[in-house]
Amino acid sequence: MNLADFLCYADIRELSRIAESCGCDCDGHSKNELIQAILNTVMRREWMDRLAANLSTADLRLINSLLFEKKPGYSLEELTARAMQAMRDEMEDGRPDGRDLIASFRRRGWLFNGCSQKTRSLMQMPEDLKSALTAAIGRRFARALTRADAPNAYRDEHGLLQADVTAFLRFVRDNVVPLTADGVIYKRLLTQLLDGLSVKEEPLGRVGFRFGYGRKFRNYPDRFSFLYDYCCHAGLIAEEGGELALTDAGVRRLEAGGKEDLWQMVRFWLRLYRGPIPNVTALAYWTLYLTEDWVTAESLVHCLRPLVKPFYYDSPETVLEKRIIRMLMHLGLIRLGEHDAHGTVLKAHAQAPAILRRMADPDGEAAKQGRKLPARA
Q1: Is residue 334 within 8 Å of 346, Cβ to Cβ?
Q2: Mean pLDDT across 156-185
Q3: Contacts 24+ apart (CB under 8 A), 34-38
Q4: What is the pLDDT of residues 117-153, one digit of tens each?
């Protein structure tokens, strides 16, 4: 539902609170005038840009936890937990109250109780408001970036991960691949396998803590652990009788040729990383959204860092640089280069806008309903 729909269901007292919060000048006794004044104010680009510029870090975090999800609504308990996470800086001072943040969202007309019997006890954010907030926050972020001209050389892995699915399946088909008691490919064979892939990685040496980013992350280097987990998830390989073998689906995949659907690989990556990085979709979205032109990695990390919670051994900078930017590069959606004056720079691949649309609308509901998705800044 859109903002106008929720406003029509709201009582005049709630409308008056929203109008006062938005600074609307209108007859507070007329429900129709209140609705029109709120809509005319809130949906103006200039007003939305001023709002986005003044959002607190807690506001940004809570909004970003809601923008890229397709849920029928949120219980008060769930929203309170999210608000507490958004206010984690305040928690260090021992004075957080997530309910205050939720109340401020309600006063501003960003959260409403559902209108049907099933959703009345849940809170929802209007769909058109989500789009307007996404665009306004995108413009705020874009103004904070440092742009650069193209580097002399850059790394582009577009299509390579998909090609390496085929290379991996062929290796398993053409070789006996025994597994250790822990279900890991022996190092000598793993070295041979990694040498045959498009992007060179070394087997892991003695490492400290490695967990959270997939079933095989503890055993294999970052890119290959994702590749391995994806092939297991897609049902292309199976660990049986102490060996790694192709499934019937894996055999058919090789016989049919072609390549993996990129969106399905991106979707699996987002699901795989959601445990350690709950807002991984928002971070991936902003990384692609903000890199239509070459920008410095330093300015992008600085811009998005407030949205990132550290994960055990990974600092917020590590999460952004290794788990988001580098994985988007492996997926072929980000080009990474070294600039003489600006250091590391990055730019989204031409296919990124199509993936952005899927992230914002994974089930295609916007197209079915004729809604517009957020435009680029």
Answers
A1: yes
A2: 97
A3: 34/7, 35/4, 35/7, 35/8, 38/3, 38/7, 38/109
A4: 887 889 999 999 999 999 999 999 999 999 999 999 9
Helix then strand then coil, % of the chain, to nearest 5:
55, 10, 40
What are the CA-CA distances from residue 328 to residues 33, 226, 236 (Å)? 47, 12, 23
DSSP state of 147: B
| CA atoms of 256 and 7, how far apart (whole Å) | 53
Q: Is 66 strand, coil or helix?
A: helix
In what order do the strands lie in the sheet containing 295-296? 154-155, 334-339, 343-348, 295-296
- pLDDT grade, residue 360 (50/70/90)? confident
Buried b / exposed e across 70-102, counting CB within 10 Å, b at 16+?
eeebbeeeebbebbbbbbeebeeeeebebeebb
Question: CA–CA separation, 210 vs 208, rounded Å?
Answer: 6
Give Cα 174 to chain centroid, integer Å.
Answer: 37
Report the topology of domain 160-258. Answer: Arc Repressor Mutant, subunit A (1.10.10)
What values do phi and psi take at 244, rounded to 5? -100, 130
Mean local confidence (pLDDT), 273-289: 96
On the question of pLDDT at 302 being above 50, the answer is yes
For the record, the structure tokens of 72 come out as 């029928």
Sheet containing strand 177-178, edge to edge, reads 177-178, 243-246, 237-240
Q: 265, 328 in Cβ contact below 8 A?
A: no
Q: How far apart are CA 222 and CA 265, in angstroms?
A: 15
Angle CA(361)–CA(364)–CA(366) in degrees, nearest 5?
A: 75
Residue range 5-52, pLDDT digits in tens: 999 999 999 999 999 999 988 877 899 999 999 999 998 999 999 999
pTM for this predicted structure: 0.92
> For 263-369, which CATH class?
mainly alpha
DSSP 8-state assignment for residue 251: H
Neighbour count for residue 241 (Cβ, 10 Å): 8
- Tell me, what amino acid is at 242? G
- Distance between the two ends of the chain, CA-based, in angstroms? 24
CA distance 264 to 332: 13
- Start and end residues for every CATH 1.10.10.10 domain found in the chain: 263-369
